[in-house]
Amino acid sequence: MTDVADDTVAGLVAASDLPGVPDEFQRLWTPHRMAYIQAGADAMRADCPFCAAPDKRDEDGLIVHRGQTAYVLLNLFPYNSGHLLVCPYRHIATYDQASPEEVAEIGALTQHAMQVLRGVSRCDGFNIGMNQGRVAGAGVDEHLHQHIVPRWETDANFFPIIAKTKALPQLLGEVRRAVANAWAG
């Protein structure tokens, strides 16, 4: 067996020995976002992800619950772990186009989602809202969806503001399983 230098481990090279200019930044690798980046904004508008999700298996569509007129799924690009979306099945753009049944179920699913997230993630509060229209910040502006973002007293920091980066401690599949398993309970 050969000796391994202090800054290498069995075939791994220390970052200081690689080309490039070292800096004080840490790297947060998020390869799962390449699907979104490569598809581009036009593809997201052309193929509505909220119309496509119900046709997939729950695990593949990140769906945690299916209702009669609306369903609940994880946000593929979450602000925080457990960031849920409540969507009507119908392809409508704004809340005023929703039927009374859709409005009632979106409200009921939002309330239940809050209860589930409190139990699963022990969050301290929520941001809940709808961005309707591109000018209002909707990433998918053609299909109504309500955001439910769990918040913790200890999650406030400058990382998102300065680095435009969110650190998410759980993978989407893990969060989906936990929320889906707790939904009926």
Give a short summary of the structure:
By secondary structure, this protein is an alpha+beta fold. Helix content is 32%, strand content 14%. The protein has a single domain (30-183), classed as HIT family, subunit A (2-Layer Sandwich).
Task: Give the arrangement of secondary structure elements.
Elements: H1 34-46, H2 49-52, H3 58-61, E1 63-66, E2 70-74, E3 84-88, H4 100-121, E4 125-129, E5 146-151, H5 159-163, H6 172-183
Antiparallel strand pairs: 1-2, 2-3, 3-5, 4-5
Your description of this structure?
This protein has 185 residues and is an alpha+beta fold. It has one domain: HIT-like (HIT family, subunit A, 2-Layer Sandwich), CATH 3.30.428. The protein has helices at 34-46, 49-52, 58-61, 100-121, 159-163, 172-183, and strands at residues 63-66, 70-74, 84-88, 125-129, 146-151. Strand 1 and strand 2 (70-74) form a beta hairpin. Helix 4 packs across helix 6. The longest helix has 22 residues, at 100-121. Mean pLDDT is 83; it is low at 1-5.
